[in-house]
Each structure stands twice: as C-alpha cells, then as structure tokens.
TrEMBL record:
Keyword flag Signal: yes
Family the UniProt entry places it in: Belongs to the bacterial solute-binding protein 5 family.
Native organism: Streptomyces plumbiresistens
Keywords: Signal, Transport
Subcellular location: Cell envelope
Record lineage: Bacteria, Bacillati, Actinomycetota, Actinomycetes, Kitasatosporales
Source domain of life: Bacteria
Name of the protein described by the UniProt record: ABC transporter substrate-binding protein
InterPro entries on file: Peptide/Ni-bd, SBP_5, SBP_5_dom
Pfam families cross-referenced by the UniProt entry: SBP_bac_5 (PF00496)
Signal peptide bounds: 1-20
Domain (Solute-binding protein family): residue spans on this chain: 84-449
Amino acid sequence: MNRKTLVLPAVIGLLAPVLAACGGSDSGSDGGSSIVVGTTDRFTASKDAPAPLDPAYAYDVGSWNILRQTVQTLMIQPKGEGDPVPEAAQSCGFTDSGNERYACKLRDGLKFANGDAITAEDVKFSIDRARAIKADSGVFALLSTIDTVETQGDNEVIFHLKTADATFPFKLSTPVAGIVNPDDYEKDKLRDGFDVDGSGPYTLQAEVKNDELVDAVFTKNPDYKGTLQVNNEKISMRSFEDADAMGAALEKGDINVMTRTMSPKQIDKLTNATDGDIDVVETAGLEIRYLGFDTDAPSVKSKAVRQAMAQIINRSELVAKVYGSQAEPLYSMVPASITGHSNAFFNKYGDPNVTKAKAMLSAANVTTPVKLTLHYTTDHYGPATKQEFEVLQKQLNDTGLFDVGIEGTPWDTFRPAEQKGEYDVYGMGWFPDFPDADNYLAPFLDKDNTIGSPYVNSEIRNTLIPDSRREADRLAASADLTDIQDIVADDVPVLPLWQGKQYVAARDDVTGTAYALNSSSTLQLWELGRGVSG
C-alpha cells in the first residue's frame, strides 16, 4: 500500500473526562508471531544507576515505557486521553471537599504474575517504599503530597494528603506508584538490574549484554485484570544504537514498528514517500526541550546572564533549521495545548534583540563575552540534538556577548553528572508524567526537583503551587499557573525552547499504531496487533 500519514487531533486541556477502552485481557489477537518494536532508548545498569527499572528509581520516558507494560497502578490514563480512570482499583475518589483524603478499592482477584494475591498492604508497601528510599532520580517527589497511607481490610487503601492536591489521581497513574511484590522488592533498597515483576498486562524477559538491555520480550499476562484490551500475545522491544540502524531494520522487515526516536530526515522521507508498505502516524505531542541552569554556578549566577540568553535565542530559527514542521517554538515550560499555558517568555522578551541583551548585561556589570559550555546528551533525545546545540551556539556567539562551547555526552554519563550539579548549562527534554500544567512546573521548581536545581522561589513553592493544586477545575487554577510562569520568565532558572510532535512508523500489517503512543509519550504496546481494529 502507499505510505501515508495519519494525523490525530491535539489534546485541548483536561476539562472533559473520556471513557477508558472497555474489555479485559482475554481479548486479543490470533496469537501470531511476536511483533518487534524498535527504539533508540538505551537501558544501562551502571554504578551511578544500578536499578534502571525499579519503580522507586526509574524517571525517564524509556524506563517508564517498560514499567507501564509490566507494573500495574491504581489509576491509568485512558486510551482517548482525559482524566485518569481506575486500573488495579475498581474505584477511586476524593472523600472530602478539600481534596485531602483519597480512597481506592482494589479489583477482586488481583494477582502478581507469580500467582500471589495482591492486597491493600502491597499497595501501601509499594508507595511507602518509594517515598522512603528517596532515590536520587527525584521520582519520589511525585508522591510528596502524601502524609500517610492507611489500609482498611484487604482491598481498601486510603491516602491522607498533607495539602489539597487535585492532581493526585494523575500521580497514582505513574510508575512510581506501581504495585510491587514485597517478596521481590526490599523495603529500603533498590532492586538492581533489569528484573521487573508486577501485575500488568505483560511479563518481562530481559536480554542483557554488558550491563545493557538489548531486547525486552513482553509476554501477555494471563492473570492480568484491568481496563486494558491486550491485542497481541507477545511484543519484543529491541534497542538500536541510532535512528539509521533502526530505520534500516524496519525497511528490511527485521522489526515491525519503530518509535522514538526517529530523525527529522527519516520522518520527512517516510511521510513524503508515495509507495511501499510502511505507514507513518503523527500524533500531538507534549514533549518539550529546554535549557537548565545551575543558578549557583559563577558563570550563570547573575540573572542578567540567563535573561540575556532568553533575549537572544531565536526559537523560530532553531526549529526551522533543525526540526521543520515536526516542532514549534515554546515560550513557557507549559506546552501550548495544556490548560494554564501562557506565552510568558514572549510576553517578557518579545522577538530576539541583541541590543536589549547587551543592555541587560551592562546594567548588571557583567563582563562580556560570557564564557559558557552548553552540555547535551548524544544518545537520548534523537540524532538532531547535536545540530540543535550547534545552532544555539552560533546564535549566542554571533552576538559577541557570549563565548559558548558545546559538549555532548552519552546519557548514562550525562544524567548523573547533571544531577550532581557538574554542568552550569545543560539541555534536557521533558515528557510529562501526566498531562497537566502542574507537571511542567513543580518538577523543576518545587523542593526535591528532578533536575537538582538550587533555584528557590518561596512564593512559587509555598503559595502558588499549593494554591493551584487545590483547584479540581484546572481552568480555575490558571491565575496561579500564569503567575508561576511569569516568575520563571523573569528569573530564568530554566529556558524553554520548543515542543514537538511524535511519530510511529510501522509496516502496514500492524494495527493499532494510532494509539501506540499517547500524548505523554507513553508506549501502549497492548494496542498493537495484526488484524485487530485499532
């Protein structure tokens, strides 16, 4: 068949709940051969990150995409987007008017893949464990509003929150809240390596070479009970060194599907082709890219330096030269399609202006040119990252106000170094834990933030974030969210660059690709099949 592009509609806020897909795990395909999915995500166990797949540690989109197939959560984001719905739970909800007491009842007959029954105590163990370990990835901060976890009988769990948190149901849908078996996971220690045991739609068999996961085989879990319809018996997810190798494997038929991360050139080629047997699906994406700053580092400690960079960087040129129609400029950490978004950086700085940037630096008595190194990862966000940083380097250096070098590092070295504060300026991406403005602000600005930033704004932490979380109607939280974005645009602890679309390419005998990725870049392997309506 001809190659084609299927464009799905963008997410417009979170105002209307959407029903989850009905059916259970007893539906599915005819049990044909394994569907092979390619990815450029790399999964490495190292001294700095020995437990890449422990729910209490994992906090990147690749690892979460493995956990979402294997470890069940009380809540889940539905197939059609919208508010989360019960998954391991049969029902969940706030039981008070102040959004501070949240209760869940478990489904009957839940079992771990080894046959052990799941009880409310297992849920409490799992969530208390992540909170107590406090892994340096910072993922535990998603559970920071929990005060205590209580159980009543074998099937009821009650969360008492420190403060109102209307986003809490979303947080219970993330892998850090995944239910694990106390027999397999120690209470106060991370589980090293690539073993994962849970009650999700699949079990995992990991093929590991030189401490790196090269092939993850997901086999349908016959004991799974939840909302998901599993349309296949087995999925193999294969990790490739780069996008070119992954693309060649798809062309040869060695893999059936490729996901993140394709290169812009690959996407253009596949989208514009007029023959062949590969289809491309384009979906709205909530991925963003940004620069992070160690605001205590001498080179960028002056707010004027960070403001000058915000005044100089030309997002439109950056996107046009590197990503074309596959991305768009972003003027806030909150993407344009999320309720509460404002163009705070454009409102403050307008179009790029070297004269204004020079005046900012001069008023703050900053000696120019300011010498900086921009750090980026070579193998985590796709092959265009180097070119992106070359464009940024040129934009800054051409002003004469900066003397910028760039340095690329593999992710397994880059991420620990960034967390330890070894980089003054660094490029990062963010794939939301859940599609709400809070998740584009609190992870970077709150206590125990995910990038280890020393930046503190007491108004944001003590007033604006807590106040925004009290509003169950997220549109009503917009005033507080806008205030946060305005403060960020003025202080520039982070500098948003662009938001991107996302793509899946598949051979045309594979179905369900339109839902293989949701807007938060969650890989939904259960949607894939052969001869199953997607």
